[in-house]
Specification:
This protein has 314 residues and is an alpha/beta fold. It is 33% helix and 24% strand. An eight-stranded parallel sheet has the order 10-9-8-11-12-15-13-14. It is globular, with a radius of gyration of 19 Å.
């Protein structure tokens, strides 16, 4: 057997994958799932009691090309005191026919880029195309990946931000400056999400604060990407939104802790892509994409990355 490639974060960045590449790969996987050529399973989650850890595995596969991806992730709030990111993981890829190993990929990069890609797929259908401002609650990896994706999709001019770590605030500020955007540091999370066209929240999903964001304060026409299981939001305030879309209704039905009241949910990402539910209907509609993460997204991006890697070494 030949050596199994390991693609580090640096290797993956060097592939030059664009936001459009990611969006197209996710949409293709969704269409493949609808046609019965791509398959995924609900997340498996372990939450050990009393220590804040969150362990997750996601599985998806396709036969064209013949690849299976399993992403495993551990979130540990104690990691920063060890000098480590809170979340670390790997994607293990097998040939979906033979079961032979195909590659191992850095899971942190896949998670960051896939998550922003899922948001981009939703935003392309639910956000106003002329959105110029974005508010961030949480300034870490997800904020930076979403900033890049949204800057590729919309004519952004400014950002507002609110976060707990100065280092992360500084990195997000620098990333915005590199894109030529003005930056305002908000005094509260609520201030960061008000009077902006786009919102991204990415607070750590375990061990976080009590809810402090109220969707009733969002401006007319806003689109919110809620990447953090809704942890910082007052859940009942989602009733004020005109549209709440989640990533996968089947996965949501199989999991015990619901993202929000099912009565608020209009449909899922597959429904948007496949035209089963409408995108933005009117300019002043307030919409949110509230999601856990979708194994199809991990598979799509992992396959895309491995294919580009193989092309480079073909």
């Amino acid at each position: 057997m030949s050596e199994i490639p390991y693609l580090s974060e640096a290797d993956l960045i060097a592939l030059g994958i664009t936001t459009q590449d990611v969006v197209e790969s996710i949409e293709s996987a969704i269409r493949g799932d609808e046609a019965g050529r791509v398959w995924s399973a609900p997340k498996a989650v372990i939450i050990p009691p009393n220590d804040g850890r969150y362990m997750m595995a996601a599985l998806a596969a396709m036969d064209e090309p013949s690849l299976l991806a399993v992403k495993t992730v551990v979130l540990n709030p104690e990691n920063p005191v060890r000098g480590l990111p809170q979340i670390n993981g790997l994607v293990t890829m097998l040939d979906s026919s033979s079961g032979l190993p195909a590659a191992i990929l850095d899971g942190n990069w896949i998670t960051a880029v896939r998550t922003a890609g899922l948001s981009a797929v939703a935003a392309s259908r639910l956000a106003n195309p002329d959105a110029q401002s974005v508010g961030f609650v949480g300034c870490g990896v997800q904020a930076r990946s979403h900033l890049q994706s949204f800057a590729d999709l919309f004519p952004l001019k400014s950002i507002k931000l609110f976060g707990r770590g100065q280092a992360n605030q500084d990195r997000l500020t620098a990333a915005a400056a590199d894109l030529g955007l003005s930056v305002e540091v908000s005094t509260s999370g609520q201030d960061a999400i008000e009077d902006v066209d786009l919102v991204v929240t990415s607070i750590t999903a375990t061990g976080g604060p009590e809810p402090f964001l109220d969707a009733r304060g969002l401006k007319s026409g806003v689109f919110a990407a809620v990447t953090d299981l809704g942890v910082p939001w007052f859940r009942d305030s989602f009733s004020a939104l005109d549209r709440v879309v989640i990533d996968d209704v089947e996965q949501e039905a199989a999991l015990p802790n619901k993202l929000c009241d099912p009565a608020f949910i209009s449909g899922d990402l597959s429904g948007l892509v496949l035209g089963k539910i409408d995108g933005r209907m009117v300019h002043d509609e307030r919409a949110a994409f509230l999601f856990r993460g979708h194994a199809l997204g991990d598979l799509a991006l992992s396959v895309l990355a491995l294919q580009k890697y193989r092309e480079g070494y073909g």
